[in-house]
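Postdoc handover notes: sequence design on the structure in folder B. Input tokens:
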């Protein structure tokens, strides 16, 4: 097939929805508000922009280097799918239990980053947003669809996601007050359910590829 025949917009729409489920920017908004509570309005907006630019850069670099990393460690795509699916499931279970960011950042990372004025890159961009789940999903999709148009489309999808997340973060104080903790927890659990289904799909496709006799 040519790069043109492989191009399917639904793949990238599914990836966009998957990123929202994995990253869960609505669930991270209370964390963002807490981390930037000491900043002025202009500083908070700048931090939101820094965080989402960093997310776009991290994911696009992962997209471009994903196949090279797999080849360097002699890891098959199917094995990576299975590992990525298990990771997504673990994040999904944490989200369905109502945990907003604890599964993406350990206590040591929290204590190290709590005193930093610039929280846009660490811990917001990484590990809270561009964490292992988002990175592994990006690598899997980039490896499956490696044509020039596909890479451009995936990169554009990442940029669109970052723009949406930036808009959410800009309005974070108002949205958090509007939804309340209960509303945010409900959204987090729904995103966790979607993410769990994506994780199972990853595992099923990986097992079918690695063990074709089971299919």
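Designed sequence:
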């Amino acid at each position: 097939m040519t790069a043109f025949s492989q191009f399917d917009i639904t793949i990238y729409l599914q990836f966009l929805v998957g990123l929202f489920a994995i990253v869960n920017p609505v669930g991270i908004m209370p964390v963002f508000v807490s981390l930037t509570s000491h900043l002025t309005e202009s500083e908070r907006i700048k931090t939101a922009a820094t965080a989402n630019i960093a997310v776009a850069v991290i994911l696009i670099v992962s997209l471009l280097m994903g196949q090279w990393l797999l080849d360097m460690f002699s890891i098959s795509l199917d094995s990576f799918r299975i590992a990525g699916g298990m990771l997504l499931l673990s994040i999904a279970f944490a989200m369905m239990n109502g945990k907003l960011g604890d599964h993406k950042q350990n206590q040591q990372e929290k204590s190290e980053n709590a005193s930093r004025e610039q929280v846009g890159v660490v811990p917001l961009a990484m590990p809270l947003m561009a964490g292992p789940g988002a990175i592994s999903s990006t690598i899997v999709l980039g490896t499956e669809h490696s044509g020039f148009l596909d890479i451009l489309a995936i990169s554009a999808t990442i940029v669109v996601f970052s723009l949406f997340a930036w808009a959410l973060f800009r309005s974070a104080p108002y949205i958090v007050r509007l939804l309340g903790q209960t509303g945010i927890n409900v959204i987090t659990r729904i995103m966790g359910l979607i993410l769990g289904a994506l994780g199972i799909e990853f595992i099923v496709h990986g097992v079918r590829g690695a063990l074709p006799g089971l299919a």
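Context for whoever picks this up: The longest helix spans residues 172-210. Don't rerun without checking with the PI first.
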